[in-house]
Design brief:
Oligomer: single chain
Helix content: over 70%
Number of strands: 0
Number of helices: 6
Order of helices and strands: HHHHHH
Largest sheet: none
Number of domains: 1
Amino acid sequence: MATSERRLNTKDDEQTATRSAPALTTASKPAPAYKSPVDRQDVDHTRPYFLLALAVFFFALSSVGTVLQVGIILALFGAKVGIVTSALVGIGVAVLISAGEVYSSESPWYLCFLIPDVALTVWWLAPACVTFAANVGIPGWATFAGGACLGIISAYLPERVIFGQRRRAKLRSVRL
């Protein structure tokens, strides 16, 4: 009797297990999609402000480099000027270079303003980066290259971010 009761319980258990198990079909619900904690539209909405802040940072970096290097150039040529005069001349040169880059950005004359801006910024940034890296233990040549790249970016990027690239827009409008 014990054997027949076991069989009965086994059959009942199988029927119960079959009834309670979910049927696997191709029409079952998909797993819920991952929901990001940050909405992409919020990021897209703040992108122009982030790019503007980045452009202001690089513009300030380039301008400070220009002001400091003009003071060094004046000292190299033996001009005996004070710190205030050196800073004012450097600010004037930085304004002249920046205005030249903005107003000539659509012409070949742009390089006449970009090259001095890059040179003055790299001349200031690269040695500063090498000094910093010597304390950290990074090779000097790698840091000099990084400072040079940072100088090029800080001289070129602000105008492109703030004013955009109108040449591409003009070319698209001509082709259409």
